[in-house]
């Protein structure tokens, strides 16, 4: 079996594939390395032979996780690293090592599936967009705060914005003007994200007309899914790129 990990700033997304990479045996999200280990131990008949991972966390935190996996399961994880080009895509950053590895793998995965120009939007702790031209040239992208960061900034830097997570979820069932603090904040932040996404779409149209595909991924993709009926929602897009970055043989 193969263990795949995507360590974002908020959550570790994990899944276990059958040895032939054909199917997903188990999958989940974990808050911490400890929670990940408990979830893995609970997978029936777990027999890990390989592991690959991508992390945007600190080098220390990533190394700690690699060490834990080696100790507990005897696997040495392949960690995706920065590259100038991969899977037909050329990294567009001035310094290719500075592009977030999650962005890199998501856009490599998207280009692999689109085989043409694509716009990749990842809604997690941060929201990122990346533009890849039909010839595989990465044009660059944008980073802005995601939903968790926007709401926490408001909660932390004001005196009277206070509400719990359950109320937040409820508030997003509509986007009409808020009639309570929680509705006003959650809907306001959600509209900011939609405005960002709309701008990305317009920019892609300026570059490529109608000749591109939009990919949505990340834990908060559902917040904007409705405004992009033609987008491909691919929750495991980073894992598609990860398999290209760390092939088994
Ligand atoms: N099972 C879950 N547990 C917690 N948050 C979740 C879950 N599923 C989706 N989310 C949402 O995903 C967001 C985090 O997205 P994610 O793409 O995992 O971020 P990151 O890659 O930065 O860790 C959270 O803001 C939350 O709204
Ligand atoms: C932009 C990010 C913080 C997004 O992280 P995420 O929301 O997926 O946890 C991450 O890709 C990152 O640390 N990037 C390095 C800076 C850059 O891409 O320019
Ligand atoms: K992200």
Automatic annotation (TrEMBL):
It catalyses: (R)-pantothenate + ATP = (R)-4'-phosphopantothenate + ADP + H(+). Its main location: cytoplasm. A monovalent cation. Ammonium or potassium. SUPFAM superfamilies: Actin-like ATPase domain (SSF53067). GO terms for cellular component: cytoplasm. Its EC number is 2.7.1.33. InterPro entries: ATPase_NBD (IPR043129), Type_III_PanK (IPR004619). Keywords: ATP-binding, Coenzyme A biosynthesis, Cytoplasm, Kinase, Metal-binding, Nucleotide-binding, Potassium, Transferase. GO terms for biological process: coenzyme A biosynthetic process. GO terms for molecular function: ATP binding; metal ion binding; pantothenate kinase activity. PANTHER family: TYPE III PANTOTHENATE KINASE. Catalyzes the phosphorylation of pantothenate (Pan), the first step in CoA biosynthesis. ATP binds at residues 6-13, 125. It comes from Zestomonas carbonaria. K(+) binds at residue 122. This is Type III pantothenate kinase. Homodimer. The keyword Transferase applies. Belongs to the type III pantothenate kinase family. The active site is at 102 (proton acceptor). Its cofactor is NH4(+); K(+). Pathway: Cofactor biosynthesis; coenzyme A biosynthesis; CoA from (R)-pantothenate: step 1/5. Substrate binds at residues 93, 100-103, 181. It is found in: Cytoplasm.
């Amino acid at each position: 079996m193969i263990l795949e990990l995507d360590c974002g700033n908020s959550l570790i997304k994990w899944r276990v594939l059958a040895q032939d990479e054909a199917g997903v045996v188990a999958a989940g999200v974990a808050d911490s390395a400890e929670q990940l280990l408990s979830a893995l131990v609970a997978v029936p008949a777990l027999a890990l032979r390989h592991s690959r991972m991508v992390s945007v966390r600190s080098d220390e935190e990533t190394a700690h996780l690699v060490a834990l996996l080696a100790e507990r399961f005897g696997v040495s994880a392949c960690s995706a690293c920065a590259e100038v080009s991969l899977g037909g895509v050329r990294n567009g950053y001035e310094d290719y090592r500075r592009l977030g590895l999650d962005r890199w793998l998501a856009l490599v995965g998207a280009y692999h599936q689109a085989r043409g120009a694509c716009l990749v939007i990842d809604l997690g702790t941060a929201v990122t967009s990346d533009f890849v031209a039909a010839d595989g040239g990465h044009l660059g992208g944008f980073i802005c705060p995601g939903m968790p960061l926007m709401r926490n900034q408001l909660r932390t830097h004001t005196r009277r914005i206070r509400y719990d997570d359950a109320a937040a979820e409820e508030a997003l069932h509509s986007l009409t003007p808020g009639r309570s603090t929680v509705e006003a904040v959650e809907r306001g932040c959600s509209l900011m994200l939609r405005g960002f996404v709309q701008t990305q779409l317009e920019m892609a149209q300026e570059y490529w007309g109608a000749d591109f595909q939009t990919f949505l991924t990340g834990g908060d993709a559902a917040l904007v899914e409705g405004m992009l009926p033609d987008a491909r929602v691919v929750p495991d897009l980073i894992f598609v790129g990860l398999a290209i970055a760390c092939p088994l043989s």
